[in-house]
Amino acid sequence: MKTPAIPAAGPLRAAAPAVEIVEPTLMPGRQPLLRHRCLQHSWWHRGSLVTPLVTGADSLGEFALLDVSLQRGCELPPHTHRCEDETYVVLEGRLRFYVDNDVLPAGPGDTMHLPRHRRHWFRLESDYARVLLHVAPAGLEHFYRALSEPAQALIVPPLPPAEPDPAPLAAVAARFGLCFD
Q: Matching InterPro entries, A to Z (predicted)?
């Protein structure tokens, strides 16, 4: 018996792509984590209250999740991240995000994703706002900590009496891949 010929790949029959099977890698040390918003782990940063809920040490560097309470006047100037993406989930208050040439208002329940290499900043539209800030990969939490002091209470602290010297801010920012305009 003669073996039938297999038609060559053509416009009607494309060759199947090779499939690479990759064995999944299990990350050692991954454990469930429940962290409460507490004074012991909170910082005051330029008139805001920052509480890390998940750090890079907890997620093996994959991401960090920060609970951030803000007041009008504590916002950072326009900047660009070289290393991480940021995602804000607005829990309370209203913010106006500026991304490149776009102006995007956000309120409770809204999510704003900011990919790295995109110039952005935000302004509070309300006197107070609270957001969850997801950063991937992790590391940006160390930027906030380097410029903060331990929180004395779980409240938004007073604003600094004067604008901080931009030189130390720029020096710390450069260590973490942030570029301020």
A: Cupin_2, QDO-like, RmlC-like_jellyroll, RmlC_Cupin_sf
Peptide bond into 137 cis (omega under 30): yes
CA distance 13 to 5: 14
Cα–Cα distance, 170 to 147 (Å, whole number): 11
Structural domains of the chain sorted by starting position, each given as residue range(s) with its CATH number in brackets: 42-158+165-180 (2.60.120.10)
Instruction: Check whether 159 has a pLDDT greater than 70.
Output: yes
More confident residue, 101 or 28: 101
**DSSP assignment of 11-48, as one string?**
SSSPPPPP----PPPPPTT---------GGG-EEETTE
Q: Can you tell me whether residue 56 is helix, strand or coil?
A: helix
Length of the chain: 181
